[in-house]
Every structure is written in C-alpha cells, then in structure tokens.
Amino acid sequence: xxxxxxxxxxxxxxxxxxxxxxxxxxxxxxxxxxxxxxxxxxxxxxxxxxxxxxxxxxxxxxxxxxxxxxxxxxxxxxxxxxxxxxxxxxxxxxxxxxxxxxxxxxxxxxxxxxxxxxxxxxxxxxxxxxxxxxxxxxxxxxxxxxxxxxxxxxxxxxxxxxxxxxxxxxxxxxxxxxxxxxxxxxxxxxxxxxxxxxxxxxxxxxxxxxxxxxxxxxxxxxxxxxxxxxxxxxxxxxxxxxxxxxxxxxxxxxxxxxxxxxxxxxxxxxxxxxxxxxxx
Length: 280
Ligand code: AMP
Prior knowledge:
The protein is α/β, with parallel strands linked by helices. The chain folds into 2 domains: 2-170, HUPs (Rossmann fold, 3-Layer(aba) Sandwich), CATH 3.40.50.620; 183-275, Pantoate--beta-alanine Ligase, Chain: A,domain 2 (2-Layer Sandwich). Helices cover 37% and strands 20% of the residues. The chain is built from 9 helices and 9 strands. Strands 1-4-3-2-5-6 form a 6-stranded parallel sheet, sandwiched between helices. Helix 2 (32-44) links the parallel strand 2 and strand 3 (47-52). Helix 6 packs across helix 7. Bound molecules: adenosine monophosphate (AMP). The site of adenosine monophosphate (AMP) has 16 residues, from helix 2 and strand 5.
C-alpha cells in the first residue's frame, strides 16, 4: 500500500493502478462499518483507494473538529490489512491553499434536518467530495446509508455536475445490540451508550409497525420518538419521516419510499441513525 500526501504524488501513483478503481473517503477513526465499505469496494474493483482527511469546513464552529479522534497510524494499518492499494492523506494546506475560494453548494435535499441544524455542513461535504473525486478519479465511490441525507447530497452532486463516478450505497453496520457504528460512539459514557440503543430500537419498532401495515406518518414518527424520549439522558434534535428522494417531510400516509431519520444528543454527543421504509 502506498501513501500519498500531495495531489501530485497521488496522481502519479493513481496512474499506475489497474481499473476499475473504487474510492472510500473517510474522516478516519476507522471501525467495522468503514471496513465493510472497503471490503465491498475490494470485491467490485481491481484497485481500492481511500482518502483520510478531517475536513474542517464540514464542522460548525461549536462542533468537534479539534476533538475528532485522529490516529493516522492505526487507520493506515487497517487500510493496509483491508487490502487498500493507495491512500491519500493530504494536509490542510494541500486541500485549502491560501486563496482557496470555491464552495460547491447542493440545493434542495440540504435544506432540512442536518442541513438546517448544521449550517454550512453540506457545503463543506460537497466541496471536499468534489475535490477528492477530482483528485482520485474513481470509477466507483462507496458511501454509507448511515449518513442518509449525505448520501442524497452526494448523489445530487454527481448527477447535477455529471461527475463520471458511480455512487455505491452500503447498508449501515451495527453492533450486535443494534447501535449503528460511528466514530463518535467513542465519546459515549457506558450509561449514554446503553440509552443510545433506543435509536435503533425506535427505528426498528417503527419499521415493524410499517411492515405490519401502519402507514400513518404521524403514528410512525410517534413510535420512534416515544422509545427515544423514554431515556432520561436523551435530547431529541429531530425524528423525521421524509420522502426517500426529495427529503420532504411526509404528511398523512406513506405511499412512496421514505426514510425515518433521527438525530439525538446524549450529553455532548450527537448521534444520527435512519431506516428505510419501502412501499411494495
Ligand atoms: P466517516 O469518515 O465516519 O464520516 O464515514 C465515512 C463513510 O463511512 C461515510 O460514507 C459513512 O456513511 C460511512 N459509514 C460510517 N459509519 C457507518 C456504518 N456504521 N455503516 C456503514 N457505513 C458507515
């Protein structure tokens, strides 16, 4: 496995890789969820490249940019063990040199939920992903359904800019007890972690009710919310049931594919999770 720290270095090494090339971009602090995406990329491509970069522009001023867990040595060891061919580990200056002044802004699907609560977050995501695509030139790029809204933003970015890359969505990987794996889970105290299981429980209960025939959007939101609200340490940011394509909130009955999305704080840690409701 080779490690490139500059765009020039990366491009030279990238040219030698047999295609198709699969990309897995990450902030790092790797867990099994990340590794599942890499494994998928390995199975579907001749070469796998990753980018490892804690992108400051997608963090708000009061968010955890400086605290975000960083361990390049461990992440690179795991990349190597997972069979990654080439890693792009740029510095801040490499990605945002003096005078850098472009923002890629995706409309529509960015307006609500995470976009509303985290102003500028998706501008940061879209801009860095566009840059990373330009540098790495992948045939396919792998993203997790765990970040459901982000996936819609990336799809829109690729569609509207005609970027020549196929976006591959990968299912959310969970701990055996249901908690969606996240680098931020490391911040949780044992008690917070226990209570955080209510996210996946709430989503599961609502999904089950949906499978059993419940179509009322209010009722489905209520089922998930009740489970999470019952936890003494939970502070709900939103429980939303939104159209799976436009992310518009569903009123009345669910008649098209929808996403049930939750964002909840436990102490200082903000967790997100979602489940897909598919109409037959
Ligand atoms: P991150 O570096 O944690 O922002 O995530 C990098 C990629 O991994 C994103 O596409 C995430 O959606 C994906 N990812 C993170 N956690 C999970 C998980 N538990 N299951 C599947 N994909 C995940």
